[in-house]
Design goal:
The protein is α+β, with helices and mostly antiparallel strands. 35% of the residues lie in helices and 22% in strands. The two termini are 15 Å apart.
Length: 367
């Protein structure tokens, strides 16, 4: 852990099976039963699964058909996003009682920087415990938390003692913690990347740490530098209370596969209207239009075009999406279409920073 970087006290709070837990809380008959929030139809997808359902292998983003096959007793519940938003607001209100440095990642998780906090409590561990107790008392749901010196380690730690638990990684424990960590637990290492790492003999943080920056750059591209530094406890990203939106999108999954562009254009019209509505609501515009196509065999393709000016008008978004649709022949029938706008007028150019060197840690820091 570098001693020329400021040691911060970061908490990552992650609600336990949030959508599913809300449904179980609101409907006591569902408590203790395997439930999935989402659709059970041929096209339905699981948005969230209760811990009872996860024991059968049911996971988010899984098709409803497969989930039902894994767990025949599974209860499907339609999502109620307005309800989830309302509860998320109550939880965030609790966060702000401790610090203004709150960075929400989604409705059910957030980073908090409590290095300096409103309670004057020097212990981030005790603050995390108190926050979790208040969420349970005031909202009725359980949360897990990770506490450490930066966002990366805090997020990894929050998954350790789920559900309804927490883990603190103290400054002097950081390097050993990362070396012993299974590579699949590294935030940012997905299933495909983990398989590639296995093939190269990288199974733990210690294995990853043994690889040079040049090696990781060569084999993992832009992500190589990220892996090189985080395994050394270096992650300088601040908790950003006002995260800059980088893209805005909308998509639709169809009840039947579409094979004709004529029918797709009708769908794109509705999607472009939704994207435009969200852009105007957020008072932003963008230059890069991306068309997302998911085929019936689940292969995914994206096509993008960058315009010389910012747009938010539906007609221009739609015309650009049409151009992208006709850009090349479709590979198969289509089950999903999406449109996103990026390169927004809210983005700022990142500052160039010099990489930090790994040196010994300062231990006189209460967590």
């Amino acid at each position: 852990m570098p001693n020329d970087l400021p040691i911060r006290k970061i908490i990552h709070v992650d609600m336990d099976a949030f959508y599913a837990s809300v449904e179980q809380m609101d409907n006591p008959e569902l408590k203790g039963k395997p439930i999935a929030v989402g659709g059970s139809s041929k096209r339905g997808v699981v948005s969230a699964a209760s811990y009872e359902a996860r024991k059968f292998g049911v996971r988010s983003a899984m098709s409803g058909v497969k989930a039902r096959r894994l767990c025949p007793e599974l209860f499907f519940v339609r999502p109620r996003f307005d309800r989830y938003h309302d509860i998320s607001k109550k939880i965030r209100k609790i966060f702000y009682d401790y610090t203004d440095l709150v960075e929400p990642l989604s409705l059910d998780e957030a980073y908090l920087d409590v290095t300096k906090n409103k309670k004057g409590n020097p212990s981030a561990t005790l603050i995390a415990k108190e926050i979790r107790e208040r969420i349970f008392k005031d909202v009725g749901l359980t949360a897990s938390a990770g506490i450490s010196i930066n966002k990366f380690i805090a997020k990894v730690a929050s998954d350790y003692n789920k559900p309804n638990g927490q883990k603190t990684v103290n400054p002097e424990e950081v390097l050993q913690f990362l070396e012993e960590l299974d590579i699949r637990k590294f935030y940012g290492v997905g299933k495909v990347t983990a398989e590639r790492m296995y093939q190269k003999g990288i199974f733990t943080g210690k294995d990853l740490k043994s690889k040079s920056l040049e090696y990781l750059d060569e084999h993992f591209g832009k992500s190589g530098r990220y892996y090189y530094y985080v395994v050394r406890g270096i992650h300088t990203s601040d908790v950003k209370p006002n995260r800059t939106r980088k893209s805005l999108a909308a998509e639709r999954t169809f009840s039947e596969n579409l094979s004709s562009e004529v029918f797709m254009l009708e769908k794109l019209d509705h999607i472009a209207e939704e994207v435009s509505r969200r852009l105007h609501k957020s008072t932003v515009a963008g230059k890069t239009v991306t068309l997302k196509i998911k085929y019936s065999d689940f292969t995914l393709q994206t096509r993008s075009k960058t315009l010389p000016y910012f747009i938010s008008d539906k007609s221009i978004i739609l015309e650009t999406a049409k151009d992208l649709l006709y850009q090349e022949k479709l590979q198969n029938s289509v089950r999903l279409l999406g449109i996103s706008l990026s390169n927004l007028n809210t983005e700022k150019k990142p500052k160039q920073t010099e990489p930090q060197k790994e040196v010994s840690v300062q231990l006189q820091f209460e967590f």
